[in-house]
Amino acid sequence: MEKRKFGKTGMETSLLGFGGFHLLEIEGQTAEELLNQYLDAGGNYIETAADYGDGESEIKVGRVMARRRDECVLATKCVKRTREGCRDSLDRSLRNLQTDHVDLLIMHAVGTKEELDTILGPEGAMEAVEEARQAGKVSHVGISMHGQPDVLIEALKRYPFDAVMTTINYYDRFNFPKIEDELIPLANEKGAAIILMKPLADGLLWRSASQAFRYAMSQPVSVVVTGMNTRDMLAEDLRYAESFTPMSEEEKEELYTKAEELGSYVCRQCGDCMPCPEGIDIPLIFTLEGWYDRQMRDGFVRNPADFALRDRLRFWFGNDKMARERYGQLAVKADACTECGDCMHCPYGIDIIHKLRIADYKLSGKKYY
User: Fold this and answer.
1) pTM above 0.90?
2) pLDDT of residue 368
3) Which residues, 6+ apart, have CB-to-CB distance to 332 below 8 Å?
4) 306 partner at 20 to 30 Å CA-CA among 5, 84, 319, 338?
């Protein structure tokens, strides 16, 4: 399996990383079998978190680490923001993982600048991390969040994080365009490793797994992390990594055009709908809709299983309040549309006028559209 440099840390990681969240869904013996099979196949990045099942995932990983700790880059995550909380969380994680150190400790799901201020401030979590580094308990530190990446961008500007973990897939590429347009270049400039999570968009892309993994693996990232909780799933994901060939820009454009999940609703941010005679920034409004609910409630009738999946995932990242606040600050909102039709030539077949009505309904908090 291909190995990639893990930023400026001097470590190398396998293209496919093993995420620990879905170990909660299976018994310990099966979890051990999967982790061992992954390591046997040449995988070397295993990641879990203190709050995955209140330590359960770490304990399952730890039963393998007790024998094979030196064969992998081991990462865990901490949701505590203070020095004391982070110190206690890390010590518990080390006990769960049956090791005296982790290669990477990730400040997990840092969703607001207030949280970042606390982490980096006096008596914040980073003080505990620096103490742990001196004691040999932690080698490197990273930061993660879900969705809109402004906090991660700010974090990389304020502190020399060794790694950044973010959502990247061909669906959310258009909900959070700053990830690929700004965060990835900044991380590469800073020498921070990029950990790609959610290559299947939390399962939305499950029918298109092959092209979703190929798209993810084609990004300039160090490792693509995914949860694997069956032997068949692990074997399939290993196959994607072992047979990987980079996707060309032409192939990406074809994917953006033809992907069923993007369809004739998700805005590709091409800008062909502009300018608007009424001064509506149409791509920006559709970006805010992406922040709000990932453009998942689209007015199309689906079967109950597909509807339930999308309804579960639409607010998964918790960016909806931020989206409404930003929309409220716009001088010209979507309801200024006069339906003149100047925008109605989207190359992806989107009914711009109809979509503007839906976006305004979501972002303004109206009761119906």
Assistant:
1) yes
2) 85
3) 278, 279, 280, 281
4) 319
Tell me the pairing of strands 12-14 and 45-47: unpaired
Would you place residue 367 in the very low, low, confident or very high pLDDT band (cuts 50, 70, 90)?
A: confident
In order of start, what are the domains of the chain with their CATH numbers?
Answer: 3-248 (3.20.20.100), 282-364 (no CATH)
What value does the mean pLDDT take over residues 15-19?
98
State the Cα–Cα distance between residues 336 and 344, nearest whole angstrom.
16
Query: How are beta strands 138-144 and 193-197 bridged, if at all?
Result: unpaired
What is the pLDDT averaged over residues 86-102?
98
Helix (H, G, I), strand (E, B), or coil: what is residue 191? coil
Please enumerate, as own/partner, the contacts of 157-160 that have beta carbons within 8 Å and a separation of 24 or more.
157/186, 158/116, 158/120, 159/120, 159/126, 160/190
Distance CA 25, CA 39 (A): 20
Task: Tell me 276's DSSP state.
Answer: P
Residue with tokens 């580094």: 133
- Of 294, 287, 332, nearest to 182 (Cα)? 287
Q: Which residue in the block uniquely carries the two structure tokens 């109206």?
A: 366
- Which residues, 6 or more positions from 360, have their beta carbon under 8 angstroms from its beta carbon? 285, 333, 334, 335, 366, 369
Helix (H, G, I), strand (E, B) or coil at 4: strand
